[in-house]
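stuck on this:

***
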Amino acid sequence: TTTATNISEDASSPDLTYRSKAVTFLDEVNKDFHIASADTNAKNTGTDLSAQFPDDIEDINRGTGAGVWDIGASEFGKAWDGGGADTNWTTALNWSGDTVPTTSDVVIFNATSVKNCVIGADPSAKSINILPGYTGTVSTSGIRSIASPIVVQAGSLTFGGNTTLSGSFTQLAGTVTLPAGTVTTNSNWTYTAGTLDPGTGTV
Protein backbone atom coordinates (compact mmCIF):
# COMPACT_ATOMS: atom_id res chain seq x y z
CA THR A 1 0.00 0.00 0.00
CA THR A 2 1.30 3.42 -0.90
CA THR A 3 0.89 6.03 1.84
CA ALA A 4 2.27 9.46 2.47
CA THR A 5 4.89 8.00 4.78
CA ASN A 6 6.45 5.57 2.29
CA ILE A 7 10.17 6.35 2.40
CA SER A 8 12.35 6.11 -0.70
CA GLU A 9 16.01 6.59 -1.56
CA ASP A 10 14.91 8.10 -4.87
CA ALA A 11 12.07 10.47 -5.77
CA SER A 12 9.30 7.84 -5.88
CA SER A 13 7.70 8.53 -2.47
CA PRO A 14 4.33 10.33 -2.80
CA ASP A 15 5.40 12.73 -0.06
CA LEU A 16 8.25 15.15 -0.77
CA THR A 17 9.34 14.90 2.87
CA TYR A 18 10.19 11.21 2.49
CA ARG A 19 11.99 11.35 -0.86
CA SER A 20 15.74 10.79 -1.23
CA LYS A 21 16.04 9.42 2.32
CA ALA A 22 18.61 6.65 2.72
CA VAL A 23 17.94 4.26 5.61
CA THR A 24 20.94 2.91 7.53
CA PHE A 25 20.60 -0.85 8.15
CA LEU A 26 22.66 -3.13 10.38
CA ASP A 27 24.08 -5.16 7.47
CA GLU A 28 22.47 -4.43 4.12
CA VAL A 29 25.04 -6.49 2.19
CA ASN A 30 24.09 -9.65 4.10
CA LYS A 31 20.39 -8.74 4.05
CA ASP A 32 20.03 -7.80 7.72
CA PHE A 33 17.52 -4.99 7.33
CA HIS A 34 17.12 -4.13 10.99
CA ILE A 35 17.50 -0.39 11.45
CA ALA A 36 20.95 0.65 12.69
CA SER A 37 21.41 2.90 15.71
CA ALA A 38 22.99 5.57 13.49
CA ASP A 39 19.88 5.88 11.30
CA THR A 40 18.09 9.23 11.33
CA ASN A 41 15.49 8.79 8.57
CA ALA A 42 13.35 5.78 9.53
CA LYS A 43 13.43 5.85 13.33
CA ASN A 44 10.34 7.43 14.92
CA THR A 45 9.05 8.78 11.60
CA GLY A 46 6.36 6.19 10.83
CA THR A 47 2.59 6.34 11.26
CA ASP A 48 1.09 4.89 14.45
CA LEU A 49 -0.96 1.87 13.32
CA SER A 50 -1.32 0.33 16.80
CA ALA A 51 -5.11 0.32 16.45
CA GLN A 52 -4.67 -2.21 13.62
CA PHE A 53 -1.65 -4.18 14.96
CA PRO A 54 0.51 -3.27 17.98
CA ASP A 55 3.60 -5.40 17.23
CA ASP A 56 6.28 -5.54 14.57
CA ILE A 57 7.17 -8.62 12.53
CA GLU A 58 9.17 -10.03 15.48
CA ASP A 59 6.34 -9.55 18.03
CA ILE A 60 8.05 -6.50 19.53
CA ASN A 61 5.56 -3.93 20.76
CA ARG A 62 5.96 -0.68 18.84
CA GLY A 63 4.32 1.60 21.39
CA THR A 64 1.72 4.25 20.65
CA GLY A 65 1.59 7.93 19.81
CA ALA A 66 3.01 10.39 17.32
CA GLY A 67 6.72 10.17 16.56
CA VAL A 68 6.94 6.65 18.00
CA TRP A 69 6.74 4.10 15.18
CA ASP A 70 9.69 3.40 12.91
CA ILE A 71 9.24 2.97 9.18
CA GLY A 72 9.74 -0.69 8.24
CA ALA A 73 8.78 -4.15 9.45
CA SER A 74 11.02 -4.07 12.54
CA GLU A 75 11.32 -1.47 15.27
CA PHE A 76 14.81 -0.32 16.19
CA GLY A 77 15.70 -1.80 19.56
CA LYS A 78 17.98 -0.73 22.39
CA ALA A 79 19.48 -3.98 23.67
CA TRP A 80 20.56 -4.83 27.20
CA ASP A 81 24.23 -5.76 26.72
CA GLY A 82 25.24 -5.97 30.39
CA GLY A 83 28.45 -4.05 29.82
CA GLY A 84 28.32 -2.23 33.14
CA ALA A 85 29.77 -3.32 36.47
CA ASP A 86 26.33 -3.82 38.04
CA THR A 87 22.84 -5.03 37.09
CA ASN A 88 21.06 -1.68 37.26
CA TRP A 89 18.71 -0.49 34.52
CA THR A 90 19.98 3.05 35.15
CA THR A 91 23.62 2.22 34.33
CA ALA A 92 24.33 3.52 30.83
CA LEU A 93 27.08 0.97 30.12
CA ASN A 94 24.55 -1.85 30.44
CA TRP A 95 22.86 -0.76 27.18
CA SER A 96 23.76 -0.74 23.51
CA GLY A 97 25.03 2.69 22.62
CA ASP A 98 25.96 3.20 26.31
CA THR A 99 22.93 5.35 27.03
CA VAL A 100 19.96 4.62 29.31
CA PRO A 101 16.69 4.03 27.40
CA THR A 102 14.25 6.88 26.90
CA THR A 103 10.59 6.94 25.89
CA SER A 104 11.65 6.75 22.22
CA ASP A 105 13.48 3.41 22.67
CA VAL A 106 12.16 -0.12 22.18
CA VAL A 107 13.95 -2.03 24.95
CA ILE A 108 15.10 -5.55 24.08
CA PHE A 109 16.42 -8.30 26.32
CA ASN A 110 17.83 -11.13 24.19
CA ALA A 111 20.92 -13.30 23.78
CA THR A 112 23.11 -10.19 23.56
CA SER A 113 23.44 -10.58 27.34
CA VAL A 114 21.69 -12.93 29.78
CA LYS A 115 22.85 -10.88 32.75
CA ASN A 116 20.08 -10.06 35.24
CA CYS A 117 18.59 -6.57 35.26
CA VAL A 118 17.20 -4.68 38.26
CA ILE A 119 14.71 -1.86 37.69
CA GLY A 120 15.17 0.28 40.78
CA ALA A 121 13.50 3.43 39.41
CA ASP A 122 10.48 3.99 37.19
CA PRO A 123 11.80 3.08 33.70
CA SER A 124 11.37 5.03 30.47
CA ALA A 125 10.88 3.07 27.25
CA LYS A 126 8.69 2.87 24.17
CA SER A 127 8.14 -0.78 25.13
CA ILE A 128 9.93 -3.49 27.12
CA ASN A 129 10.47 -6.83 25.37
CA ILE A 130 12.01 -9.96 26.90
CA LEU A 131 12.78 -12.08 23.84
CA PRO A 132 13.86 -15.67 23.05
CA GLY A 133 17.55 -16.13 23.88
CA TYR A 134 17.35 -14.23 27.15
CA THR A 135 17.59 -16.59 30.14
CA GLY A 136 18.17 -14.07 32.91
CA THR A 137 15.77 -12.30 35.24
CA VAL A 138 14.42 -8.78 34.94
CA SER A 139 13.16 -7.64 38.33
CA THR A 140 11.70 -4.53 39.86
CA SER A 141 12.51 -3.31 43.35
CA GLY A 142 10.30 -1.14 45.52
CA ILE A 143 7.06 0.51 44.45
CA ARG A 144 7.22 1.05 40.71
CA SER A 145 5.11 2.67 37.98
CA ILE A 146 5.74 1.41 34.44
CA ALA A 147 4.07 3.28 31.58
CA SER A 148 5.38 1.27 28.62
CA PRO A 149 3.89 -1.93 27.21
CA ILE A 150 5.62 -5.15 28.33
CA VAL A 151 5.96 -8.38 26.32
CA VAL A 152 7.50 -11.49 27.93
CA GLN A 153 8.59 -14.25 25.52
CA ALA A 154 11.46 -15.80 27.52
CA GLY A 155 13.48 -15.55 30.73
CA SER A 156 11.88 -14.29 33.91
CA LEU A 157 10.17 -11.12 35.05
CA THR A 158 9.76 -10.64 38.79
CA PHE A 159 7.77 -7.82 40.34
CA GLY A 160 9.45 -6.99 43.64
CA GLY A 161 6.86 -4.63 45.07
CA ASN A 162 3.53 -2.95 44.42
CA THR A 163 3.54 -2.01 40.74
CA THR A 164 1.27 0.03 38.48
CA LEU A 165 1.24 -0.84 34.78
CA SER A 166 -0.18 1.81 32.45
CA GLY A 167 0.69 -0.02 29.24
CA SER A 168 -0.47 -3.42 28.06
CA PHE A 169 1.09 -6.60 29.48
CA THR A 170 1.51 -9.75 27.37
CA GLN A 171 3.02 -13.08 28.42
CA LEU A 172 3.74 -15.46 25.54
CA ALA A 173 6.30 -17.64 27.37
CA GLY A 174 8.85 -17.39 30.17
CA THR A 175 8.13 -16.92 33.86
CA VAL A 176 6.35 -14.03 35.55
CA THR A 177 6.36 -13.77 39.35
CA LEU A 178 4.03 -11.42 41.19
CA PRO A 179 5.03 -9.55 44.37
CA ALA A 180 3.67 -10.15 47.85
CA GLY A 181 1.52 -7.14 47.11
CA THR A 182 -0.47 -5.76 44.20
CA VAL A 183 0.09 -5.28 40.48
CA THR A 184 -2.42 -2.75 39.18
CA THR A 185 -2.96 -2.74 35.44
CA ASN A 186 -4.67 0.14 33.65
CA SER A 187 -4.61 -1.61 30.27
CA ASN A 188 -4.93 -5.15 28.86
CA TRP A 189 -3.28 -8.10 30.61
CA THR A 190 -2.91 -11.05 28.21
CA TYR A 191 -1.63 -14.50 29.16
CA THR A 192 -0.98 -17.01 26.36
CA ALA A 193 1.67 -19.40 27.70
CA GLY A 194 4.51 -19.73 30.19
CA THR A 195 4.57 -19.83 33.99
CA LEU A 196 2.64 -17.25 35.96
CA ASP A 197 3.53 -17.50 39.67
CA PRO A 198 1.01 -15.47 41.67
CA GLY A 199 2.56 -16.22 45.07
CA THR A 200 0.49 -14.16 47.49
CA GLY A 201 0.14 -11.31 45.03
CA THR A 202 -2.93 -9.76 43.45
CA VAL A 203 -3.54 -8.40 39.96
DSSP finds no helices and 16 strands in the chain. The two ends are 41 Å apart (CA to CA). The first strand starts at residue 25 and ends at 27. The mean pLDDT is 87.
